[in-house]
Every structure is written in C-alpha cells, then in structure tokens.
C-alpha cells in the first residue's frame, strides 16, 4: 500500500526537492507524467520537449535506482488523460495513497490547477514550498513592501548578504557590488570561442527523439543535432566545462554578438538550473571557487553570480508578486501581430536572421540577442506583448513562465509600465553595430539614418519614442534622448517618421 504519492513535475528534477524530503522508498510512490496539455499550451520548440521528456525519464530511472516505486506515464501510454491533474486523479484512484505530496509548481497556471484539484475519497494534497531558490515568496514580498520602485540591484545586495557569496564580512569582495562597467566589450571574430559541452544522445534520449519527431513534426525548431545534457551528472560536467573554458571571459564579452557564434562565453546552463538538474547556489559556489583559486577574474564571476542570485531570483519574486495580471500587461497598447519571420528567420536584417536562426537550431539565444535584437525589434515595431511573450515561452529550452514572463513582459517589452525596469530597452542600429559584427554582413547600412537602405532600427527608434512621448516624455532616464529629438529640425523628424512608417508598412 502506498503511504504517500509524490508527484514530481517536469521542472522538479532534483533529488533533494522538498516533495521528496522525508520520503521512504519502502512506503511511498513517485508519480511522473508526460502529458499532452503541457506540450501544447504554447507550441514548444522540438528540442525543448525532447530535453524535458528525456531528463524526466532519466530522473525517473535514478529514483528507481534509489529504491522507489515510480509510476511513469509516457505521452503515448494508453489511458493517458492528457493533463497533470488528470494523471494525479488516475494514480490516486489506483494506488489509494493516504496523502499526495507536491512541491509548489513554478508556474501560476499549474499551481492553480493543483489548488483546484479534489482527489477521489478526499485524499489530501500537501503542497510544499520550492526551496531550490534563495529567496522565499514571503521574503521577496517583504522586500518589495512599501518600496516605490523595485530595483534589482538592491535586492541583489541582500541576496549576496544572505548567501555570503563574494562577501568579505559585510563588505563586497573587491569593494564594489557590481562590476558591470568592465563588462561591455564587443567581441572580435578572432578570439577563441569555446563551445558548450555536447552530450551524445543515449538510447533513452533516442527513443524520446523518435517520439518528438513523430508527434511534434510541425513544431518550430530543429531536433537534430540534440546535444543537451539530460542527467545531473552530465549537467555538472557541462557546468565544469563552462567554468574552465568560458567563465574567465564571461564578464568582458557578456553583451557581445558575432555572426555564426551562437554561445560566445555564455554558460548555457539556464535550462539545467530551471528543470532542477543543477542547483543555483551550487552553480554560484563553483563560480566563486574559480575566483578564489585565481582561475577567473572578479568582473566575470561577480557578473555571472549576479545573473543567478540577482536577476533570476528577482524575476521570480516579481512573477509571484504580480500574477495573474502580469502577463496581460500592455502599457503601450501595442497590437501588431508578431511578424511571421520570427518563426522562420527569413529576413534580410542580419541581426534578426542570426538570432532567430540560431533559436531555431538550438532553442537557445543569449541574453543580449533576446533583449536587444528580437525584443528590441518587437517593442520598436509595436508588437502585441502577449504574442511576444508566447513566442519566447515556446522557442527557448529554458523557458518557463515564471522566468520568461518578467523578462519578456517586463524587461524587454516594458509592458508592465516600468515595474521591473526603469526605462525601455530600445536602441537604434548604433548599439547593435557597436556590440556585434552583424551590420558588416547586412544588406542595410547602419550608418544611414533614413531611406530604403538605412538600418530600419534607426528610424524605428525615433518613431517609437515619438509615438509614446505622452507615456515616456517625463521619464528622467530618457530626458537627453527626448531633448535630442526636440532639437532636430522638423524636416529631419519628418524624414525619420516617414522612413519608419514605410518600413512598418512592409511588415503588415
Ligand atoms: P548566461 O548568460 O551564462 O547567464 C548565467 C545564468 O544566469 C543563466 O543560466 C540564468 O540562469 C541566469 N540569468 C541570466 N540572465 C537572467 C535573467 N534576465 N533572468 C533570469 N535568469 C537569468 N531565462 C530563462 O532562464 N528562461 C527564459 O524563459 C528566459 N526568457 C527570456 C526572455 C527575454 C525576452 C529575455 C530578455 C531574457 C530571458 N531570459 C530567460 C534570461 C536570459 O536571457 C537567459 O537566462 C540566458 O540567456 C540563458 O543563457 P545562459 O545559461 O547561457 O546564461
Ligand atoms: C514544459 C513541459 C512539457 C513540455 N511537458 C511536461 C510534461 O509532460 N510533464 C510535466 O510534468 N511537465 C512538463 N513541462 C513542464 C510544465 O509545463 C510546467 O512548466 C511545470 O509543471 C511547472 O509549472
Ligand atoms: Fe541589424 Fe541594422 Fe545592423 Fe542590419 S544594419 S544587422 S538591420 S542593426
């Protein structure tokens, strides 16, 4: 007889997860389920589905090796009800446990479904906090309480104090909390670029790849080559590989972009942390160790740790503070449909073509590509932020709503009206040209400001600021920009606006 039924979701693949704490393999059963509902709420990239299913199957096997009875429902199991709560009901019906244990789902949608679940025979469901984060929901809410603006930097300092990472007593190591000013170098093509660790698919992964090819043939993205780690052991190897090969240069080239270089010095570990194969704190401790051993400089290590205990924790806090309304934010009332080329990469703008094509190939693009290329373009052209949000949620292997939505709706699209960021992340072609070599390989001329051959970002930038001057004109951080716009001649301004409108017409 089953004492406890422990339901482990697809992003809860950690052996120390709270739902497993105090579990007894002799009396408890683990439930895991591949279900249709979770594969279709957005049209996920093929690689994302394969990654999650294969990692789930490997995790289930490890639990069995640890002595647990595991009820693992595959997508093609006969009788699969198609939903997480449906699978829970079926398992409770058959196993009649005294209690169900679940770690709180990371996404609001899934948590609501379980909150509303009523089991057969009133079986109680105990939902435990997810302690794989540094800040609890309550800590974040306390921190946010009464603050006029929520800025990541101050929250991050609290997380440094709480974890003791890069701390010298109560002072930050190096006497500065943040070394970003050293982290904005454009990369040069002749630098040595390490590739992330690639793992050969084993027989379990190959079986999943066949299932995905069969069931999700029309989904976005390439399935091959599939090289993601799908076990904790391989994810740890991928982390160590990054720390050795790329972390030393992570800081300096964090914002850089190069044609054909998909990863530069980025870690490509977000997907592993987000599904639980790696623990965020252990990742940061390994990076800190590289600094203390003299293997990586402080600007890189601080920058890397800030992304994880700063940004990652902060966006999760915002998400749980502001859901469910957060995802419907549309500060600029933008209505344009997402351009079709976001699904094909078929555009003659090299920056977009590069970011989207590698997204198709790898289910990966790094932060500045997401923020300053695809995000910037969608914001400047007035795409409906909900469509933008659904795109990001679908196309990246690391995309789970709790982390994706604040990054997209808040940071990238400013659709929350500035809760998360103090000003919209928008730029003309100049920024892209400075940080990348994309423009040298583009049919548009980044130096031309207007006209059919000019880089479209240049006129779109001013068009965006002009059309939203009522909402942004008083933003202190945009004062200089609006003054520059105001000082231009009427003819110049009209040229920019006409040029942008001619381009926008081509999108319709
Ligand atoms: P690195 O550049 O090596 O950074 C190290 C780690 O820091 C990452 O693995 C990640 O865990 C963390 N991190 C870095 N930036 C952020 C951030 N802004 N928010 C949260 N964590 C961060 N990240 C996701 O994990 N899932 C998403 O769905 C997601 N959607 C995004 C959508 C948009 C529009 C934008 C602008 C950013 C998004 N990000 C998302 C944040 C960031 O782009 C990715 O975490 C990062 O690119 C992952 O690649 P990496 O592991 O090589 O990261
Ligand atoms: C993203 C995803 C996919 C594609 N499939 C499953 C699944 O079949 N079973 C599962 O437990 N989880 C899956 N996930 C993750 C969930 O959609 C969701 O992100 C998590 O349950 C967290 O709320
Ligand atoms: Fe992108 Fe403009 Fe540069 Fe072309 S010229 S790559 S469109 S920024």
Descriptive report:
This protein has 508 residues and is mainly alpha-helical. Helix content is 47%, strand content 5%. The chain has a five-stranded parallel sheet, with helices on both faces. A two-stranded antiparallel sheet has the order 6-7. The radius of gyration is 24 Å and the shape is globular. The termini are far apart. The model has no long low-confidence stretch (mean pLDDT 96).
Fraction of residues in H or I helices: 40-55%
Mind describing the biggest β-sheet? Answer: 5 strands, parallel
Please give the alpha-carbon distance between the first and last residues: 62 Å
In terms of structural class, how would the helical and strand content be classed? Answer: mainly alpha
Total number of helices: 21
SSE series: EEHHEHEHEHHEEHHHHHHHHHHHHHHH
- Ions and ligands: flavin-adenine dinucleotide, ligand DLZ, iron/sulfur cluster
Tell me the Rg in angstroms: 24 Å
- In spatial order, strands of the major sheet run 3-2-1-4-5
Total beta-strand segments: 7
pLDDT < 50 runs, ≥5 residues: none
The shape, in one word, is globular
Average pLDDT score: 96
Percent strand equals: 5-15%
